[in-house]
Amino acid sequence: MKETTAKEQQDVLGARARRMLDAAPTILCVVGLDERRLIEHNAALARSLGCTEEELSTRGVEALSDRIHPGDMAGLAASAERLKGARDGEVIEGELRARGREGDERIFAVRAEVFARSEDGSAREIFLSAEDVTERKRREQRLHRSEALLATFCDHAPVLLYAKDREGAFLLVSRSVEELVGATPGSMLGKTDSDFFPSEVASIYNDVDDLVRRNGAPFEAEDPVPHAQGEKTFYSIKFPLRGEGIPEGSVAGISVDITRVKAAEREREAARDELIAAQQDTIRELVTPLLPIAEGVLVMPLIGFFDSARASRIIETLLQGVARHSARIAIIDITGVKAVDVQVAEMLVHAARAVGLLGAQVVLTGIQPAIAQTLIELDVDLRGLVTAGTLRSGIAHALKRT
């Protein structure tokens, strides 16, 4: 009775152990080396490789070999030879490519050690455990490609790329940043702006970084950067950098060299100023035309309204014209003048006196009745000016005098 109970308990424990082994996601099996026989295995072997229990029972190791990548067979044979002389507890590790149950190639991390020995002490059975690491390897490959792409991007980017931690130490810099400050590849990591820039410049950079941290938002500005060939100007965007594995308070930035753009802007502004000055000169000539009509005779027709600046230009143009043409008579025609006030009257008197100092005479034409009345009311002293009702009569007068 007691023997029966013990046997039943042993069967229960054995069944439980089998269930535990079959539930394990890792492949577990025992292989006989001499006869190349699959002695024991759990359900994960069939699940992972798509083998049937009948196939494993009849073909065993041969069924497994059919699914292993041909390129890995030589390495597998070498590992088996190593195991024959391995010590107890010595583990041989490696990776194998095999065809999975969906027919796709899978990668397995394999561990093997001696499980049982022959009477002569040589390895007779080995215990294998294998874990499907395909997805992990793919993630590692993607990460490796991403890191390689980022490194290549940072090496060749024509802009400055950089990231700093809360203390301002560089976490990442592009090759362009290193070239700008004359640093060797990788030498800027862990250092700060004060190691490469004057203290006043580094202080400005740190203040901007702190502003970005406080506001938690991007900040744009134009940054002057000292350089061996002269100061450069960069357009910079700095922003908070957050994410898994990134130190809290980190800040990143992208800076574009706009030195040439700023120089071109200054050139355009200078050219624009020159154009505006030329246009103003042209306008002054148009609003104060001076026409030589005969030897020693000039005519200046005036139109519109006047201010002090225009009155000064009129007198300046008139005097320059009289001197340049050696004129004896200068006719000022005010037919097109809208109104005469004290300012206009004083301008006419000043013009007459100034021209007189150059030995010439001013003839004022085009005086309308309303303007004549205004001049009288203003009590303007027109002595030194010859007046004529029309430009035509003024020209006739001038021609008689020359």
UniProtKB/TrEMBL annotation:
PANTHER family noted in UniProt: RSBT ANTAGONIST PROTEIN RSBS-RELATED, RSBT CO-ANTAGONIST PROTEIN RSBRC
InterPro entries with a match to the protein in the record: Bact_StressResp_Reg, PAS, PAS-assoc_C, PAS-like_dom_sf, PAS_4, PAS_fold_3, STAS_dom, STAS_dom_sf
UniProt keyword terms in alphabetical order: Phosphoprotein
SMART domains with a match to the protein in the record: PAS (SM00091)
Species name: Sorangium atrum
Domain PAC: 92-145
Domain PAS residue range list: 146-215
PROSITE patterns assigned: PAC, PAS, STAS
Keyword Phosphoprotein included in the entry's annotation: yes
Sequence ranges assigned to domain STAS in this UniProt record: 287-402
The protein's name: PAS domain-containing protein
Gene3D superfamilies: PAS domain (3.30.450.20), STAS domain (3.30.750.24)
